[in-house]
UniProtKB/TrEMBL annotation:
This is Exosome RNA helicase MTR4. It is an enzyme of class 3 (hydrolase). PANTHER family: ATP-DEPENDENT RNA AND DNA HELICASE, EXOSOME RNA HELICASE MTR4. Residues 18-35 have a biased composition (Low complexity).
Length: 1034
């Protein structure tokens, strides 16, 4: 009888007629069991159900139901189940004809007809001295027609033109306009640009307020959000709101602020959204239309004024390899050549385990390329690294090079001295200030979050004036600041994202590489990616040619949001959830899922299995055997049991997720140390080198691709392949003699003949090691598994279908049907999820916490505590309010209170923990006790919270630094107390000042003047010298 599952399957059930001398029983059972459950496509089937020891043969089966593969579930017709009409956002999208080079669509409320945009009749609100691109003309046309627009284009394409036009129009019509940007530094720069253009401009960033009554206000999104919650008068006069860098909305922490703000804005305001290229721009416009009941246009262009060429520099190599040309074509041959160079350079280029480059190799590579860029006249260049330390290290390697003329050196010095003129003499002597000037004079700059803000701005100014030829920066430099270069160099294709090392995404690559190529100055931009480890062409293509990351909502609830919404009468938290982009994206997915379920149901009902009831019982037995076979494999794979048997010459079977290599021969095994990503503990990995029969084709590209097994009719080639222990699907009791030298191909091929001989000798299957008799595993659990296997085998063997000639056909049908049933159940779950308002359960839990802590009443009326918490938005409002009401701040001095508050705003990693004196350690302990209580209440309210993580989110690393600073120490003195970068200390102090201002407001809300004065005193104590030196842009 032919069988799709291999010959060995039935050897389990024959008597021990030792014809083969094979050990039957347990080991063979494991092998058979693992085969019994194999699907014909090599994947183990899903949908198996657990029926241990069930001897009852009957199953109530209705062939039109999914009950046969799990719990009996009531499956209604999907479309009846969900009233789609009620859920679907009522929006339609229409394409608008445009010239080549950009696409124009408009999202409209479903009941409105599209009225073509009217060309402008009078004078333009703003004239431009250059010819506008197609996308700019289209966007301006929308603004002239008083309609909202989303402009999605590459970094250097000139999106700001559209924003400036909206401002000019609003000012002409005597209306107010708000321009929001994601970061304060960017707001300062935009204020500078807008002020030079329009004069009637103000700035509000929390740190700084300039001319708040101006018609055009530049502000951070956080300020706009708090103005909306406060019901500010300004909002009544606003006609346009411009959101710059709207793709920032996907930021996991702060993205939610954009979403809240857009939901809270009134329907009569019009919008200009500026975004990097996003593939789902239309979806965003539909949401705006759905939310504010007004048309929203999408102008999308992929056009780059300066085309880019992408090169790869393989570590250890000498040259560049063009992998994507200026027409955007991926050159796979060049890519493979680059990978081959990398492989030949081999171990020299490998760094240590942490992803840092080893020895002198890393530096000399960067040095080599920068030198070559200068020789070929490809400067200015931005060199992106993914850590502040790398940035500085690479820049310091360049000290032998000099890119500036004497004239330029003089100018650098003049700009630098003017910039630091506002600092005190003492601050001018700070190591960072003194060390950076010699580099700047040579035309080398550094730009990362650890720099003093004043130096960062000086370097931006020098770079934009062409006085810095090589800028070593972290990726924050690619965020918004419009500073293009001719060339962009990536020192690595991997980054650490807080959890683990990963390849950078194509979206991150697009954002950073978009800095290459200056409009009107370069005929093309150059992007160079340094690669120091093998990358497959698929990953390479995905990275270099992938699409931008979609704009996905990062909406999540915060207490500040819930409390503010309870406080404001017109709107409630449920409304916010329903209207979020997060919810909209889920509603949008419904029709697709419904269609999927209908198709699956159709397929399911088409499959007819003769005598289905009996087949299903047989199917379940085999599923159980497969599962038990896996359990035996787990015992056998434990290093303590299997390693003693992996001697050279041992026959083993190798199978990974995709491929089955069949039998191979062990050559050697080794132990690798593997660091667990979360705990950092060492977890040894065992790698076995196995001589396997591989396809010649896959060995050709071994630099970039894994080996594949030879096809049945192919001659193939024996090759030594490293295999992880858990991929050994069987260990045989047979050992072969292997030649000492496996380099000559004939020696390797001779082993293949030996393996084939063994298989001929044992037609019923190669004998396996017995886990108990041979390997000596005495575990009771294993014995139980084997007993279960024997019982199931007996049932399988005695089942009438087992020797039936139609077994193979019906079994495959049954397997297919089971898989479809699983898919249907998954899709139904998706549907159920899409129908409910997401995060509603979490909202209930959060309200429960607020009630238990006394912030709100059971009828959702906000209490005094809640009103106080509404004042605090830049730190943990619950904990700070609790501390205030518990009188924790009452006995502290202003300096102690300020130091304690630093735990709430410091967010960076620092290796050293300060040894705190009792006057700081005491308050810290009280704060942690308070935090534990909140964590306990949260857990009781069924909120998912990890107490340890929650407590660790308050970082006392800078408490002593802040305390010393508040007591009047110099900046140089406090820098020596910690390993935290100077820029990070300043960022912490500035956030601290913002929090102190909020604490003043909170104390004022409860009428506690003493506390209000204490926090105000804290502000005066820290707000001095270089820490609060004004921005050069203001």
């Amino acid at each position: 009888m032919a069988d799709a599952f291999g010959d060995d399957l039935f050897s389990v059930f024959e008597d021990d007629s030792a014809a083969s001398g094979a050990k039957k029983g347990k080991a063979a059972a494991a092998e058979a069991a693992s085969k019994a459950g194999k699907r014909s496509d090599g994947k183990s089937p899903a949908g198996s159900t657990n029926i241990p020891g069930k001897t009852k043969r009957e199953a109530e089966v209705d062939s039109t139901d999914y009950a046969i593969f799990g719990k009996k579930s009531k499956m209604e017709d999907v479309s009846d189940d969900i009233n789609l009409a009620d859920l679907m956002p009522k929006v339609k999208v229409q394409a608008v004809e445009t010239v080549e080079g950009c696409t124009h669509e408009v999202a409209l409320p479903a009941n409105e007809d599209f009225i073509a945009l009217k060309p402008r009749t009078g004078k333009a609100a703003k004239e431009y001295p250059f010819i506008l691109d197609a996308f700019q003309r289209e966007a301006i046309l929308c603004v002239d027609n008083n309609q909202s627009v989303l402009v999605s284009a590459h970094t250097s394409a000139g999106k700001t033109v559209c924003a400036e036009y909206a401002i000019a129009l609003a000012l002409r019509e005597k209306q107010r306009v708000i321009f929001t940007s994601p970061i304060k530094a960017l707001s300062n720069q935009k204020y500078r640009e807008m002020y030079e253009e329009f004069q009637d401009v103000g700035l509000m960033t929390g740190d700084v307020t300039i001319n708040p009554t101006a018609s055009c206000l530049v502000m951070t999104t956080e300020i706009l959000r708090s103005m909306l919650y406060r019901g500010s008068e300004v909002m009544r006069e606003v006609a346009w709101v411009i959101f710059d860098e709207i793709h920032y909305m996907r930021d996991s922490e702060r993205g939610v602020v954009w979403e809240e703000t857009i939901i809270l804005l009134p329907d009569n305001v019009h919008y200009v959204f500026l975004s990097a290229t996003i593939p789902n721009a239309r979806q965003f416009a539909e949401w705006i239309c759905h939310l504010h009941k007004q048309p929203c246009h999408v102008i999308y262009t992929d056009y780059r004024p300066t085309p880019l060429q992408h090169y790869i520099f393989p570590a250890g190599g000498d040259g560049l390899h063009l992998v994507v040309d200026e027409n955007g074509d991926f050159r796979e041959d060049n890519f493979n050549t680059a990978m081959q160079v990398l492989r030949d350079a081999g171990d020299l280029a490998k760094g240590d385990q942490k992803g840092r480059k080893g020895g002198t190799k890393g530096p000399s590579n960067v040095f080599k390329i920068v030198k070559m860029i200068m020789e070929r006249n490809f400067q200015p260049v931005i060199i992106f690294s993914f850590s502040k330390k790398d940035c500085e290290a690479y820049a310091l390697q360049m000290t032998k090079l000099d890119f500036n003329t004497d004239e330029e050196k003089k100018m650098v010095e003049e700009v630098f001295n003017n910039a630091i003129d506002c600092l005190s003499d003492e601050d001018k002597k700070l190591p960072q200030v003194e060390h950076v000037l010699p580099l700047l004079k040579r035309g080398i700059g550094i730009h990362h979050g650890g720099l003093l803000p004043i130096l960062k701005e000086t370097i931006e100014i020098l770079f934009s004036e062409g006085l810095i030829k090589a800028l070593f920066a972290t990726e924050t430099f690619a965020m918004g600041i419009n500073m293009p270069a001719r060339t962009v160099l990536f020192t690595s294709a991997r980054k650490f994202d807080g959890k683990d090392f990963r390849w950078i995404s194509s979206g991150e690559y697009i954002q950073m590489s978009g800095r290459a190529g200056r409009r009107g100055m370069d005929d093309r931009g150059i992007v160079i990616l340094m690669v120091d480890e093998k990358m497959s062409p698929t990953i390479g293509k995905q990275l270099l040619k992938g699409s931008a990351d979609p704009l996905n909502s990062a909406f999540h609830l915060t207490y500040n949001m819930v409390l503010n919404l309870l406080r404001v009468e017109e709107i409630n938290p449920e409304y916010m959830l329903e209207k979020s982009f997060y919810q909209f994206q889920h509603y949008r997915a419904i029709p697709g899922v419904v269609e999927k379920v209908n198709k699956l149901e159709e397929q399911y009902n088409k499959i007819e299995i003769p005598n289905e009831e009996s087949v299903v019982i047989y199917y379940k037995i085999r599923q159980q055997l497969a599962k038990l076979g896996k359990e035996i494999e787990e015992y056998v794979h434990k290093p303590k049991y299997c390693l003693p048997f992996l001697q050279p010459g041992r026959l083993v079977k190798v199978k990974n997720e995709d491929d089955d290599f069949g039998w191979g021969v062990v050559v050697n095994f080794s132990k690798k140390s593997n660091v667990k990503p979360n705990s950092g503990e060492l977890d040894p990995l065992y790698v076995v080198e196995v001589l396997l029969h591989c396809s010649k084709e896959s060995l050709k590209n071994s630099a970039t691709e894994a080996a594949k097994p030879a096809k049945p009719d192919e001659k193939g080639e024996m090759q030594v392949v490293p295999v992880l222990v858990h991929l050994l699907s069987a260990i045989s009791s047979v050992r072969l003699y292997i030649p000492k030298d496996l380099r000559p191909i004939d020696n390797r091929q001779s082993v293949l003949k030996s393996i084939q001989e063994v298989q001929k000798r044992f037609p019923d299957g190669v004998p396996l090691l017995d886990p108990i008799d041979d390997m000596g595993i005495k575990d009771q659990g294993l014995k139980k598994v084997i007993q279960k296997i024997e019982a199931f085998e007996h049932r399988m063997y005695s089942h009438p279908l087992h020797n039936d000639s139609s077994l193979e056909t019906v079994y495959k049908l049954c397997e297919r049907k089971a898989q479809i049933a699983v898919d249907i159940r998954t899709a139904k779950r998706e549907l159920k999820k899409a129908r409910t308002v997401l995060q509603m359960d979490e909202l209930k839990c959060r309200k429960r916490v607020l009630r238990r802590l006394g912030f709100a009443t059971s009828s959702d009326v906000i209490e005094m505590k809640g009103r106080v918490a509404c004042e605090i938005s830049s730190a943990d409002e619950l904990l700070l309010t609790e501390m205030m009401f518990n009188g924790l701040f009452n006995d502290l001095s202003a300096e102690q209170a300020t130091a304690l508050l630093s735990c709430f705003v410091f967010q960076e990693n620092s290796s050293e923990m300060p040894k705190l004196t009792e006057q700081l350690a005491g308050p810290l302990r009280q704060m942690q006790e308070c935090a534990k209580r909140i964590a306990k209440v949260s857990a009781e309210a069924k909120l998912e919270i990890d107490e340890e993580n929650y407590l660790n989110s308050f970082r006392p690393n800078l408490m002593d630094v802040v305390y010393t600073w508040a007591n009047g120490a110099t900046f140089a003195h406090i820098c020596k107390m910690t390993d935290v970068f100077e820029g990070s200390i300043i960022r912490c102090m500035r956030r601290l000042e913002e929090l102190l201002r909020q604490m003043c407001q909170a104390a004022k809300a409860i009428g506690n003047t003493e506390l209000e004065n204490k926090f105000a005193e804290g502000i005066t104590k820290i707000k001095r010298d270089i820490v609060f030196a004004a921005s050069l842009y203001l």
